């Protein structure tokens, strides 16, 4: 399995220009794109890529806040996000250390559309280009823990 240390999503937080210009946001590296701005797309593509596995979607938010700032896929204690597959506690530790304050984990049971509506995130058709093929390619770069 290809292992990359979990890195905080906040380390790739979009700049004001990246937030306002979809082309600039789209042209970021894959890791930056899927860490901040399209993490939810990557999480759902990961889940859909392995229909025989009970992969769940989880989110991270600052303690006491309702807004999820990072979404990821979870299977049997492993988390998949822009850093690839890592033990979920490592992903949470990396994000907590970066943010410098406690975080809360949220189990996401909504569909992608419901998640996007609730958390003000973009649906795939709202990006400059279709992010789904890019996400499928990214998922395929990492060997899942059960392989």
Can you walk me through this structure?
The protein is of the alpha+beta class and 147 residues long. It has helices at 16-20, 22-26, 30-35, 39-49, 88-99, 112-119, 131-140, and strands at residues 56-62, 70-75, 78-81, 84-87, 103-108. It has one domain. It contains seven helices and five strands. A five-stranded antiparallel sheet has the order 4-3-2-1-5, sandwiched between helices. Helix 4 packs across helix 7. It is globular and about 35 Å long. The chain starts with 15 loop residues before the first helix and ends in a 7-residue tail after the last helix. The mean pLDDT is 95.
Lay out the secondary structure:
Blueprint: H1 16-20, H2 22-26, H3 30-35, H4 39-49, E1 56-62, E2 70-75, E3 78-81, E4 84-87, H5 88-99, E5 103-108, H6 112-119, H7 131-140
Antiparallel strand pairs: 1-2, 1-5, 2-3, 3-4
**Gap from first CA to last CA:** 8 Å
Would you report the number of β strands? 5
Question: Mean pLDDT score, rounded?
Answer: 95
How large, in whole angstroms, is the Cα Rg?
14 Å
* Strand fraction: 15-25%
Count of discrete domains: 1
Helix share, percent: 25-40%
**SSE topology string:** HHHHEEEEHEHH
Strand order of the largest sheet: 4-3-2-1-5
Keywords for this entry:
alpha+beta, five-stranded antiparallel sheet, 147 residues, 7 helices, 5 strands
Put the structure in a nutshell.
This protein is an alpha+beta fold and 147 residues long.
